[in-house]
Each structure stands twice: as structure tokens, then as C-alpha cells.
């Protein structure tokens, strides 16, 4: 929106009547009344001139003023000067290493100067930031975004050198659980394929004998490998997927929901270093019993690959996250939207799940994460725009622009009057401090 203000000044010939300038700026004020957040972000250094002057004065008085260093570094980031921001914010961080605003902006600066791992380390401290701080969500969103981008970069890199990893050793201890394929007719149940896989990943993560591939890496490979119309797990794709993930075992399957609301779940397990295929019995029953059936399927899988559970591991697997099928369906729809990078839509589905079942804690956690991704994910400029604090009110912004032009003071009341005056009032100059309108053009005599 600030670019409109810039255009109002840069495209208008000068000198001209102040009324035209004020009218343009007043229109901008009206347009931005309902979107004030857009005024909080500017990449123009001149918009921060006074603030920078005050901060530099504070640093002249006290070079160790961490808050001044932090705020100056934040301005450098907002105005696309990442190298200066990085150097300034490092000095602030050295004095106060646990300040949330410093952590966020130093993370953004690190990311912008190519220190992505350092940025990830800084953003990973979000869980130590108070929940009341706006920077906690911003840091979490940026952390999750970078993790996803790194996973995709890793998979792409492996794909470019697949010939060199053809003989890559894969461990049978590493298990990848891919989404279940839907075989039914009603589309409303299709998202359950994501939800079932997510529950299995969460359960199997409690088994010390196994290492389960993270869902983020799974989604990265689903994006990059073209499965076409085939199953996620079959003998044609399994060797390639296993090598790319470093997984010696792949598990997946299919499910079908009948019109009578019965469900059948079939699981397939492929072992890349074995000639035989473990057999996992299918599970069938009423859809209302989905959660207990899913637990039975996990135990059947572990039995098929000869993994024994301790009492503690069995107890960790037993609890179900929700007993509401509607809540689980909403959660599964959230996973589907998240995998499409539709984080705002995903958050809405997760919140729907928690509304249906307030005790569905995993859905609440995913909602917070998706909301953070929606706010701070994407480009660095998107995250910086979300982080920008309101620099000033709309009228103060316009006043600063006029001051920069050397036009002197014009209060908000004057702007409002400029909007409300009728042409007649302007012509009469009643109570007006604006310049009069130009005279009428001369009347040409008749020939």
C-alpha cells in the first residue's frame, strides 16, 4: 500500500496546488483505514529517518545499548540491508541472547546472508519464548518453513545423483510410512489416508528398535517423485523411494469405506534387502471402531517384521488421540491441505477438529503450527511484513511524507476537512488554509 503513496508523490508534477496532494493522500488514508497492517511495513529507509537518528544517538551515548542495536538491526532488515542488519543484530545478541525480537530478526538476517543452519538454530528456540510474545509464532513459522525447504532441497539433490547412490545401503531399522490409498466411492473419506498414516507414524515413533522417517521428508519425496496412478508403495517405486529416504522398509496400503460405513484396511510392507514380503493381516470392521482397528494394525505390522515391544512401548502406543470420527476427519483434511502448502486452510480444519473434540491435543498443536506457517512461511519479505510493528498511524505517515517534501505541518483535522469540503466551499475559501483554485481560462471572443 505504501507504494501507492510513493506513486502519489513521484507521478505528480511539482509545483502544484497542495489540494491535489492532500486529496491523493486523503484517498490513501481512506483506502487504508480497514487495512492498517499494510502501513506497518515499509522498505523505504526514509520512512525510518527520525527513528534511525534517535537510535544512533542512543548508541553514541551507549554503544552497548542492546535494545537500540536490536531495533536498528530490525530496521535494516525491513529496508533490505541484511548484511548491516546481521552485524548490528549480532552485537545486540551478544548482550541479550534471549530477547525474542532479537532472535527473530537475527534469524531472518542469518537466513538472508546465507547462514541457513544458523537461522534454523535461532528459530528453533521458539518454544522457550513466552506464548504471549508475537515472536514465538513468527519464529515457529519460520523454523517449520526452513525445515520443509531443506527437506525438499535434500530430496532434489539426491535425485540429481541417483546413479551414484544406486548401491546405497539402507537399514531395515528405518521405516517409512506412506499415506494409505483410498479405494472407496465417497470422497469425504479420502483424507483419512493421511490421518491413518500420521497416527501410525506417531505410534511407531515410540518403538526404540525402529527409526521412523519424519513426515516432512515423506512429503518432500511425494512432491518430487511422480507416482502417477499407482500406489504409494509398490515394487516398482519402492527401491527408488527407499534409497532416497535411506529406508530399508516401506509401509503403506489402502482402505475402503462401504455405504454401510464399514471399513477395510490393507497394509503392505516392502523390505528392500529381503526377498520375502512380510504379511500383515487386513483389518475390517465398523467405521466407528476405526481407532481401535488402527492400533491393531500397528501391532500386526510390528509382529510381521518381528519387532517385540516392551511394556512401556505398548502402553505408549495404546492411547487414541480422539474418539470422534468427525474430529479425525477434520484433522485429516487439515493434513491434506498442509501437504498442499495451504496452511491457512489447514489451520481452519485443525481448529474445527479441536472444536468438535477439545481434548484433541495433536490437532491443537498442528493448528498452532499451521497458523505460524501461514503467517511467517514463504518468502523472507512475507515474514518481515508479518513481523513489522505499526511504525506510525496513517496520518503520521502522511505528515512525515509532507515533512520530507518540506511542506510543513498538516494535521489530521485538515485532512478530514479536505475530504469533506464541497467544491463551493473550496471556491469560497471558507475557513480554508489551502491555496485558491486557479482562475477560469479567458473567454475567446467570437470570430
> Tell me about the biggest sheet?
5 strands, mixed
β-strand amount? 5-15%
Radius of gyration, rounded? 30 Å
Mean pLDDT: 81
Rounded to the nearest angstrom, the distance between the terminal CA atoms is: 52 Å
| Poorly predicted ranges | 1-40, 391-401, 403-438
Adjacency order of strands in the biggest sheet: 2-1-3-4-5
Q: In which range does the helix fraction lie?
A: 40-55%
The global form is elongated
What structural class is derived from the secondary structure elements? alpha/beta
Order of helices and strands: HHHHHHHHEHEHHEEEHHHHHHHHH
Number of helices: 20
Strand tally is 5
Structure description:
It is a single chain. The protein has 447 residues and is of the alpha/beta class. It contains 20 helices and five strands. The chain has helices at residues 2-10, 18-31, 49-61, 66-78, 82-95, 100-112, 116-123, 134-160, 192-204, 215-224, 238-245, 290-304, 311-317, 325-339, 343-356, 361-376, 380-387, 394-404, 412-420, 423-428; strands at 171-182, 211-212, 247-257, 262-271, 283-286. The longest helix has 27 residues, at 134-160. Residues 1-40, 391-401 and 403-438 have low confidence and may be disordered.
Amino acid at each position: 500500500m505504501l507504494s501507492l503513496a510513493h506513486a502519489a508523490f513521484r507521478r505528480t508534477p511539482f509545483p502544484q496546488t497542495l489540494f491535489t496532494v492532500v486529496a491523493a493522500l486523503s484517498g490513501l488514508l481512506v483506502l487504508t483505514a480497514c487495512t492498517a497492517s499494510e502501513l506497518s511495513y515499509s522498505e523505504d529507509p526514509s520512512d525510518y529517518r527520525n527513528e534511525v537518528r534517535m537510535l544512533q544517538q542512543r548508541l553514541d551515548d551507549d554503544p552497548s545499548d542492546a535494545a537500540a542495536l536490536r531495533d536498528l538491526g530490525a530496521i535494516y532488515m525491513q529496508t533490505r540491508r541484511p548484511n548491516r542488519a546481521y552485524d548490528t543484530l549480532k552485537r545486540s545478541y551478544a548482550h541479550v541472547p534471549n530477547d525474542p525480537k532479537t532472535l527473530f530478526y537475527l534469524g531472518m538476517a542469518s537466513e538472508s546472508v546465507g547462514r541457513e543452519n544458523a537461522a534454523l538454530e535461532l528459530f528453533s528456540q521458539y518454544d522457550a519464548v513466552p506464548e504471549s510474545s508475537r515472536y514465538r509464532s513468527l519464529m515457529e513459522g519460520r523454523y517449520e518453513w526452513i525445515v520443509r525447504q531443506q527437506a525438499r532441497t535434500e530430496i532434489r539433490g539426491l535425485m540429481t545423483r541417483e546413479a551414484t547412490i544406486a548401491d546405497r545401503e539402507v537399514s531395515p531399522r528405518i521405516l517409512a510410512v506412506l499415506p494409505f490409498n483410498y479405494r472407496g466411492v465417497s470422497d469425504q473419506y479420502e483424507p483419512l489416508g493421511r490421518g491413518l498414516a500420521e497416527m501410525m507414524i506417531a505410534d511407531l515413533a515410540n518403538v526404540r528398535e525402529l527409526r521412523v522417517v519424519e513426515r516432512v521428508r515423506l512429503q518432500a519425496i511425494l512432491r518430487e517423485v511422480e507416482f502417477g496412478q499407482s500406489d504409494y508403495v509398490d515394487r516398482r517405486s519402492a527401491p527408488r523411494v527407499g534409497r532416497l529416504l535411506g529406508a530399508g522398509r516401506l509401509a503403506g496400503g489402502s482402505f475402503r469405506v462401504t455405504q454401510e460405513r464399514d471399513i477395510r484396511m490393507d497394509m503392505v510392507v516392502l523390505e528392500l534387502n529381503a526377498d520375502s514380503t512380510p504379511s500383515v493381516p487386513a483389518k475390517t470392521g465398523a467405521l466407528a471402531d476405526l481407532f481401535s482397528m488402527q492400533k491393531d494394525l500397528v501391532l500386526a505390522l510390528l509382529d510381521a517384521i518381528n519387532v517385540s515391544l516392551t511394556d512401556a512401548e505398548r502402553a505408549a502406543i495404546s492411547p487414541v488421540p480422539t474418539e470422534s470420527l468427525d474430529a479425525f476427519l477434520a484433522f485429516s483434511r487439515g493434513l491434506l491441505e498442509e501437504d498442499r502448502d495451504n496452511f491457512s486452510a489447514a489451520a481452519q480444519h485443525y481448529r474445527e477438529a479441536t472444536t468438535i473434540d477439545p481434548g484433541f491435543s495433536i490437532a491443537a498443536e498442528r493448528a498452532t503450527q499451521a497458523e505460524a506457517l501461514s503467517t511467517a512461511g514463504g518468502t523472507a519479505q512475507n515474514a518481515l511484513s508479518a513481523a513489522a510493528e505499526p511504525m506510525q498511524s496513517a496520518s503520521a505517515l502522511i505528515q512525515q511524507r509532507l515533512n520530507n517534501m518540506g511542506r510543513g505541518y498538516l494535521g489530521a483535522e485538515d485532512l478530514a476537512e479536505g475530504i469533506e469540503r464541497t467544491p463551493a466551499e473550496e471556491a469560497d475559501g471558507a475557513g480554508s488554509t489551502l491555496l485558491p483554485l486557479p482562475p477560469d481560462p479567458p473567454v475567446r471572443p467570437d470570430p
